[in-house]
Write a structure and sequence with these properties.
The structure holds 2 protein chains of 2 kinds. Chain A is an all-beta fold. Chain A has no helices and 11 strands. The mean pLDDT of chain A is 91. Chain B is mostly beta strands. In chain B, a hairpin with a 4-residue loop joins strand 7 and strand 8. The chains are: A mainly beta, B mainly beta.
Chain lengths: 115, 109
């Protein structure tokens, strides 16, 4: 059974479109994250939710809107897609947000290509 | 600012030993992680250090010196499947995880 699953794995779309990526974890973790990994391979935190509540909201355009219906799900909706949004988006989860020993379990990633 | 520095790319030979270094400057310290990421896949957890010294786990070991802001990942008896990127990440005093750009390790037969 997949621990952190995200869909779709690949997404190719035109500039200006709106798209969503879904994420679900079956690990019983309290905290979920969205990361963006660009072509230079830097992992950048975008959002973090703890038990459905937003705890980290980095400087991300407000075209990006996360939604957490329950602690096992964290979806990412992107409006008015731009070329610079092309990247791999990783969902991740962990036991608790505020811990030094916070091991993250990542989903397989969603590769977004904006044309 | 906060940053993590690690070499961009390293090459090693199958069966050999390689050491991947990581230096960090962060606002506080609450632990250092190493993750492995194969091309096109998700990062997976390798090791965690919070106290100075060496942590050994099979063929992989990780070392930490907090006073020097320095860590290394040591891979022994290299196998072709070890070809991957190795990401160093530090938890700062606000429990934010700061990531390095990763070191791409190429293993040659």
């Amino acid at each position: 059974d997949t621990a952190v699953s995200q869909t779709p794995k690949y997404l190719v779309t035109q500039m200006g479109n709106d798209k969503s990526i879904k994420c679900e974890q079956n690990l019983g973790h309290d905290t979920m994250y969205w990361y963006k990994q660009d072509s230079k391979k830097f992992l950048k935190i975008m959002f973090s939710y703890n038990n459905k509540e937003l705890i980290i909201n980095e400087t991300v355009p407000n075209r990006f809107s996360p939604k957490s219906p329950d602690k096992a799900h964290l979806n990412l909706h992107i409006n008015s897609l731009e070329l610079g949004d092309s990247a791999v988006y990783f969902c991740a989860s962990s036991l608790a947000g505020f811990s030094g020993a916070n091991v993250l379990t990542f989903g397989a990633g969603s590769r977004l290509t904006v044309l | 600012g906060q940053n993590i520095d690690q070499p961009t790319e390293m090459t090693a030979t199958e069966g050999a030993i390689v050491q991947i270094n990581c230096t960090y400057q962060t606002s506080g310290f609450n632990g250092l992680f190493w993750y492995q990421q194969h091309a096109g896949e998700a990062p997976t957890f390798l090791s965690y250090n919070v106290l100075d010294g060496l942590e050994e786990k099979g063929r992989f070991s990780s070392f930490l010196s907090r006073s020097k802001g320095y860590s290394y990942l040591l891979l022994k008896e290299l196998q072709m499947k070890d070809s991957a990127s190795y990401l160093c990440a530090v938890t700062n005093s606000n429990y934010q995880l700061i990531w390095g750009a990763g070191t791409k390790l190429i293993i040659k037969p």
